[in-house]
Here is the input.
Amino acid sequence: MKVRTFKLDASALAAAHCSGVLALHESALGGIFSLADEAPPVAGATPAARERVRVVSIAGPLQTRAQHHMCGYADGYDAIVSRVGAALSSADVDAVVLDVLSPGGDAVGNLEAARRLRQIAKDAGKPLLAAVTMGYSAAYALASAAEAIYVLASGGVGSIGTIAVHVSEARALALEGLDVTILRSDPTKAAGHPAEPLSKEARAELQKLVDMFGASFRELVSEHRGLSAADMDEFKARTRHGVAAVDAGLADGIGSLEDVVDLAAVRAVTRTRKGHSMAFSSRLQAAHSAPPVNREEHRQAPALAAETGVDLSIARQAIEQVQAALQPPSLPPANREEHRQAPARAVVSDEVMAFETGASLSVVRMAREQVQAALQPPSARPVASVAALASSEGVSVDVARQALEQVQAALRVQGQA
Here is the structure.
C-alpha cells in the first residue's frame, strides 16, 4: 500500500473542507503526516494470535467524513463508526480493540461518533477496548467510548478542548494587487472571511463556537470516564502520558496493542451473546488464566461505575470493600476472647460480587442464600431452586446450576479471605 505525505496547514484544512472548529492537538498544525492510498478494511485487521478479536485503526488527522484527497485517504468519523459497527456485528468477532494513533481533527461529528461507538458496543454486548499510542483531542473522544483505555508507557492522551484557526489573506492579496469585494445580505454573513482581517465581532462569534464545542467535549469525557467537573477543571486541555494518564483517570492501564488484544480476548470469554447479563466465567478466574495488562484492571472505579450505572464515589467505596475483603487475614491475637470480639470485616455487596464474577444480581443473591443456608442445620436449609433461576433468566437448568456453582465458589473464597 502506497503512502503519501502532506503538511497539515491552513491550505490542507481548507482543501479538506474542514469546519471552523477543530478538536486537534496544537502540535499537529504544521506537522507532516502520511496518508495511505486506500481506506482500512471495513471489519478491521485480524490478529493472528486472537482470531476472534478485531483491531480497528484510528490514525492520522480525522475528518467529519472520510474522503480521498490528492495525497491519499483521510479517515472520517463516518467510516470509523462503520468499521467498528461491522466488526461488532460480525458473528465471528467476540471483541474489538481501537488502535489509536491520531492528533485529533474536525470537531463537527466527533462527539456524536464517540457516543455512537459506545452505543454500538453496548447493543452488541461485546467488549470494546482502546489501545492508545497517541490519542489527543478528537481521537481521545473516540477512545473514551471504549470500556477501558490502555496507553503505552511513552504514549499520550488528553488535549480535551477545541480551537479555531483563522488565516487572513488580506495583505497577501494586496501585495498581489488584488482587491476583493464581499457583498452581504447581512453584516454577519461570511464573518471571518479569509479575504478580510478578522473583526472583533467575527472573533467574538468564533470564540463562542469554540467554547460551545469545548464544553460539550468536556461533558462527553466526564460522562464516559466517570470524571467530575473538578477533575475536568484540573485537566484543562493538557495532555497526560503513560502512568500519569492512568493516575489522572484518563486511562485504565499501561499496555501495548498486543497486550490489549489479549485482554479483550479474556474479557470476551466472560460474556454471552445475550446481553452478557449472565457471564458465568468468573472475571477473577479469567484474570488468573490470562493476566490482564493491569492486575487491578477489573477494580478500576470508572469502569465499575460505567458498568453498574452507579456514582463514581459509590464505585470507589465498593472497590475499597472488595480490596479489604481480599487482604490476607492477620494472625489471631494471643487473647482468643479479644480476637472473637474484633469487628467483622465488611461484607462485599451483591452488586460488587456481580461485577467481580460477571453474573446477574439474581444469581448472586440466590448463591449467597445457598451459601448461608449451608451453614444452618440441615432441617433449616431451604430447597435449592435452580429451576426457578433458570426460568427467571431464560437459560437451561444446567447453565443456571453452573452459574450458581461459580458464584458460590467466589463467595466461599471471599468468605475465607
Summary: The domain at 3-167+200-258 is CATH 3.90.226.10 (2-enoyl-CoA Hydratase; Chain A, domain 1). The chain has two domains: 3-167+200-258, 274-330+342-416. The CA atoms of residues 140 and 158 lie 6 Å apart. The mean pLDDT is 75.
